[in-house]
Design a protein that fits this description.
Layout (H helix, E strand, L loop, with lengths): L1 H15 L8 H8 L1 H20 L3 H21 L4 H11 L4 H13 L1
Helix pairs in contact: 1-4, 3-4
């Protein structure tokens, strides 16, 4: 059930692609393009790290939510959905992290 909110946000992001950039923050990010979206993801990543260093659970939670949101904007920009990520996480479930990493390296080498 908790993944349902990610799916709903993903649908909203798709709708915002068609919205007026003057009336929608997300539409303004899409209009500004990939570089602006990437800068927001980097900014939010930094804020997560700073919140962690401050050991403030409430701020960590808020900043991770911001990072997830902007990462979802990036996914949507590339016509990907939260389902793509959820399926990838499901595929990795039960795999050793070392095994999964080795499989990715093997696939890149071929």
């Amino acid at each position: 059930m908790t993944d349902q909110i990610l799916i709903e946000i993903g649908k909203t992001l798709e709708e915002r692609k068609q919205a007026n950039a003057q009336s929608s923050y997300v539409a303004s990010l899409f209009e500004a393009g990939e570089d602006k979206i990437l800068r927001k993801v980097m900014e939010e990543s930094t804020e997560v790290l700073l919140a962690s260093k401050e050991k403030n659970p409430e701020e960590i939670t808020k900043e991770v939510a911001d990072l997830w949101f902007h990462s979802m904007v990036l996914l949507s920009y590339h016509n990907l959905t939260p389902e793509h990520v959820l399926l990838e996480l499901k595929r990795r479930e039960g795999l050793s992290g070392l095994t999964e990493k080795a499989m990715r390296k093997q696939n890149k080498d071929h």
